[in-house]
Amino acid sequence: MRIRKQISDTPKSDRDDSLKVEVKPHPFGFKKSPDNPLNERIVEAINMMGGVGNDAEANYQATLDALRKQSSKVVPIVAAEYADLPKDQYLDRWSLIQLLAELKAASSLPILDGILSSRIPPEQSKNPHSFTTVGEEITIRTTAVEAVTRIAADKNKQALEILLKHAQHKNFSVQRASIQGYLIYGGKDAREVLVKVLPKKDQFILDIRRVDIREVPQAEGGIFLVSRDSDELPPPQLPDRSKVKRLQNQ
Question: Are 85 and 97 in contact (CB under 8 A)?
């Protein structure tokens, strides 16, 4: 704050030490596409991903529809922004890949394949139990698999080839997502094709499937659950009275 001299014994500061806060509307630079009107649309779509309200989803889909009509121009912009973002901006990187998944443009397949083929950097977090950089990288890659899978749903051969390629990915989560995507859209011979390319130790993944939570068997019986064969709660496991008494006397 600049202090102005009002009387002779009032201190004066010539240094402007006021707090200046720079507010950025978004983290993207668009250095390779300055002044492109699509930039604003891309930012708008990303901001709408977490929108709430009665019209949020409708507005989001309307924005996506506008971008899909110009996907040949949008995809290179998104790819350039992803490449320019610092590696530690995980949420921003993820949001760009999620946008590609929503656009379902075949032109994004080389970009997605490149992301899936890139090495997962070693853990950078000092406390990976609360935050893990490897986990963030895996999330970005499984979202890339989802993007490829959505394109494969339109019987795109290149997308299926990418899923088959990454069915042998070194990371289990990425591998499983790729296998499941190929099983769904790879046709009637998808399982046989996967059996041929997967080592035996990984073939159990073929039997992992997504299920509705309502289909998952629920726990039966236990301390706080009623067994299916009984209407009464099981007795609680009370502590040994003799042990409690000994502890009290100590």
Answer: no
Class of residue 205 by CB neighbours under 10 A (exposed 0-12, middle 13-18, buried 19+): middle
pLDDT in tens, 228-245: 555 555 555 555 555 545
Which residue in 150, 60, 133 sits closest to 94, CA to CA? 133
∠ CA 122-90-133, nearest 5°, is 25
Contacts of 138 (CB under 8 A, 6+ apart): 120, 171, 173, 174
Query: Is the Cβ–Cβ distance between 176 and 208 less than 8 Å?
Result: yes
CB 67 within 8 A of CB 41: yes
pLDDT number for residue 61: 96
Q: Are 206 and 179 in contact (CB under 8 A)?
A: yes
Contacts of 64 (CB under 8 A, 6+ apart): 45, 102, 103
pLDDT digits (tens, 9 = 90+) for 19-67: 554 445 789 999 999 999 999 999 999 999 988 888 999 999 999 999 9
Q: Cβ(182)–Cβ(176) under 8 Å? A: no
